[in-house]
Amino acid sequence: MDGLPLTGIRVLELGNYIAGPTAARLLGDFGAEVIKVERPGRGDELRNWRLHAGSTSILFRTINRNKKSIVLDLRTARGRDIVLELAGHCDILIENFRPGTLERWGLGPDALERANPGLVVVRISAFGQTGPLADRPGFAAVAEAMGGLRHLIGEPDRPPSRVGVSIGDSIAGLYAAFGALLGLHQRRTGGGRQPVDVALHESVFSMMESLVPDYLAHGVERQRAGGRMEGIAPTNAYECADGTSVVIAGNGDAIFRRYMEAIGRPDLGADPSLRTNSGRWARRDELDDVISAWTRARTRDEVLKVLDDAGVPAGPIYTAADIAHDPQYAARDMIQELPVDGRPVGFPGIVPVLGEKSLPVRSLGPDLGTHTREVLAGVLGKSDAEIDAMLAEMEE
């Protein structure tokens, strides 16, 4: 599609799983040509994660949308040489191998710079390319734990829980895409460039607000608070009479007074000891009991109608089914139907919105190696005989 912000930018994606592919997907969403390199035979292991039918998971189709898939065996000299050739025709390279892997293959930053002095190299790993833990492997679960997030998830009287998605990988992917754009900007303005080094645990840590400064300044260690946000009240999830739940964020001073009026407790709204957040936090259990009693006597729709009329921020806790049929998502084209195995399936739209609604998803994550001939012939000018020889070598 012409006219997208990154049209004309070519990205070479090396690696597996979620973080690196998320970074490349974000660039592809806005027009970059993304060439995803996969190993022969199995390809990216994500193809088999949460595989409910067929040979390629919906998870892979989602995270690797708007890309081209080629197969190369990086264990062979021919495969590595082709990567270097491709790098010479690309603007950005994104990889998420364990540190040292590219160097052992002769594909480290020095080799890549020789192949293309203008290439922006983005590296994603568990703990970064330097430091005492650089060589240690690690997935997002470890990064979320060491970044401080896992300690805060769950109920205070139970072991820490996990967020239900690979949030550490996704955050790192966002930072990697941002770093890639910084590299492009530096290239265009003549500034010095260094490889972009994204660590999963640092990406998570960067989201932890004042967690460490509060500890260093005041000795305060934040603890798990369940559905609450520590130090802020009243904000929580509350059950309704129909078995659903809502989140209500009534923690602003003026909002709290409207909130209490709406649920029939103007006495609490007028209570001097509850005028500020610190006083409300001290009485958080009492407030949650009052609010819970009110929501449990009403359906979700009734609760949300009263609070909306009062200007109190509140919303339903959605399931996948709720999202799939929500008019707000639909109005902004955030659920887009694309064909999978002959039937239409709704997939997430593209964020951020440019204009009034999501850009269209151009293609889902491709079958393994679909674009090998197209890329090697079109980008590198390889002949059919050369491509046939390479493919035959990978089948041996």
From TrEMBL:
One of its GO terms (molecular function) is CoA-transferase activity. Gene3D superfamilies: Crotonobetainyl-coa:carnitine coa-transferase, domain 1, formyl-coa transferase, domain 3. This is CoA transferase. PANTHER family: SUCCINATE--HYDROXYMETHYLGLUTARATE COA-TRANSFERASE. It comes from the Bacteria. It comes from Nonomuraea cypriaca. Keywords: Transferase.
